């Protein structure tokens, strides 16, 4: 398939190939849709087997960001970039500064941040060359670690799910099984314990397990291979993707699936399979948008209270998705996509109205 056919297949707007012989930079910036605003999405650094694989990853992830930002109610489009290379061996200041100059050249249609294989330090190098980067440290006026905000958003999504399914959003007497107690899982456990939930955890990293059991009382540790099969009210995947699959589905004994991991469903059809079993699925990209909402706040001048307030909004967005699923007889995963697509289509129509001069604040996304 030609490159333009690949863009046409999922309606991508633009792809930029970046090459710098001096630093060895090879990067691909993919912009999916900028109807709502500039395309925001992280930069992934990965040793791709081929350039085709790198392009496909950038295109797939950029489209995912369009949906995530739209559903979260942000005025942002979807984009993503990949740097082809080994994130352990190939990093240096000049590589990221060279990359930063390419981003500046895109003129604000794409805004980057850290992602798998890149760090806050890398983004600080990028920032030396461009205005269009977020997710920098608090010391530099940025929003810092997104994980506590992601955890807060997941907790709000869980509350909405409990309310929808049981009529009460109280965690007293509820059992939640958390798979993975890393950056996000740790903060999620903190919310759950404060709310009175009984918490089961599993992790393959002993240090992370030791930290969470030391810091919070009443935590039960279970076998990582069996965490999905625990009898519980909520199963929270916070480690890996594709944990809802043909193998795990028959073993689930939960009422709700809600966690921070990306791509929780191995395949789209697993959303319907969960619904058939009476398990409520809170779509992953909706409930894990807290980190994105926080980082996006940097574009308006970072303010913790405003960011926290916006993350609480995930509660009502999740409820809205459950309503769409119920009213239209579709899965909650389809309802999330529907919500995002309708918001984009509606703004497209609003933009058709002529105004002589948009407010300066909006000019960058008109
Ligand atoms: P992390 O690497 O800090 O934590 C993941 C934890 O899962 C680790 O403790 C790891 O040991 C554990 N783990 C790995 N394999 C496991 C297994 N088989 N069974 C049990 N535990 C296992 O990552 P994180 O930042 O907490 O993110 C967790 C997930 O959420 C990732 O999928 C990430 O892409 C997604 N996510 C994170 C954020 C964020 O703000 N950090 C935002 C959106 C989505």
How does this structure look, described?
The chain is an alpha/beta fold and 366 residues long. Helix content is 43%, strand content 14%. The protein has 14 helices and 12 strands. The chain has helices at residues 3-9, 51-71, 93-105, 120-127, 147-166, 183-194, 206-215, 269-276, 284-287, 290-296, 304-312, 314-328, 332-350, 360-363; strands at residues 14-20, 25-33, 39-40, 43-46, 77-84, 110-111, 175-179, 198-202, 219-221, 234-237, 256-257, 280-281. The strands form 2 sheets. Strands 1, 2, 3, 4, 5 and 6 form a 6-stranded mixed β-sheet that branches. A 6-stranded parallel β-sheet has the order 9-8-7-10-11-12, with helices on both faces. The longest helix is centred in the N-terminal third of the chain and has 21 residues, at 51-71. The mean pLDDT is 96. Bound molecules: nicotinamide-adenine-dinucleotide. Residues 146-147, 150, 179-185, 202-205, 208, 224, 238-240, 260-262, 288, 291 line the site of nicotinamide-adenine-dinucleotide. Nicotinamide-adenine-dinucleotide (NAD) is lined by residues 146-147, 150, 179-185, 202-205, 208, 224, 238-240, 260-262, 288, 291.
């Amino acid at each position: 398939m030609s490159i333009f056919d690949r863009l046409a297949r999922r309606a991508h707007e633009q792809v930029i190939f970046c090459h710098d012989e001096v630093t060895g930079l090879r990067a691909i910036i993919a912009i999916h849709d900028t109807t709502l605003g500039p395309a925001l999405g992280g930069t992934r650094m990965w040793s791709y087997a081929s350039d085709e694989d790198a392009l496909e990853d950038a295109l797939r992830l950029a489209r995912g960001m369009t949906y995530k930002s739209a559903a979260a109610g942000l005025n942002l489009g979807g984009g993503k970039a990949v740097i082809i290379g080994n994130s352990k061996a190939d990093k240096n200041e000049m590589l990221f500064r060279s990359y930063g100059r390419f981003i500046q050249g895109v003129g604000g249609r794409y805004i980057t941040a850290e992602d798998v294989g890149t760090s806050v330090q890398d983004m600080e190098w990028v920032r030396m060359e461009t205005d269009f980067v977020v997710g920098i440290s608090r010391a530099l006026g940025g929003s810092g670690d997104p994980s506590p905000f992601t955890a807060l958003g997941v907790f709000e999504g869980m509350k909405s799910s409990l309310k929808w399914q049981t009529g009460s959003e109280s965690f007293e007497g509820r059992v939640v099984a958390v798979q993975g107690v890393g950056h996000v899982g740790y903060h999620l456990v903190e919310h759950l314990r404060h709310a009175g939930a009984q918490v089961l955890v599993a992790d393959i990293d002993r240090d992370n397990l030791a930290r969470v059991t030391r810091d919070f009382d009443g935590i039960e540790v279970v076998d990582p291979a069996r965490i999905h099969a625990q009898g519980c009210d909520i199963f929270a995947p916070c480690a890996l993707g594709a944990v809802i699959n043909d193998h795990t589905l028959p073993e689930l004994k939960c009422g709700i699936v809600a966690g921070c991991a990306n791509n929780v469903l191995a395949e789209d059809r697993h959303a319907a399979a969960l619904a058939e079993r009476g398990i409520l699925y809170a779509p992953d990209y909706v409930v894990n948008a807290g980190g994105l909402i926080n980082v996006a706040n940097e574009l308006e001048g970072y303010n913790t209270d405003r960011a926290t307030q916006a993350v609480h909004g995930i509660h009502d967005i999740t409820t809205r998705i459950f309503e769409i699923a119920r009213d239209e007889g579709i899965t909650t995963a389809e309802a999330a996509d529907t919500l995002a697509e309708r918001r984009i289509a509606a703004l497209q129509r609003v933009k058709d109205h002529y105004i002589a001069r948009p407010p300066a604040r909006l000019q960058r996304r008109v």
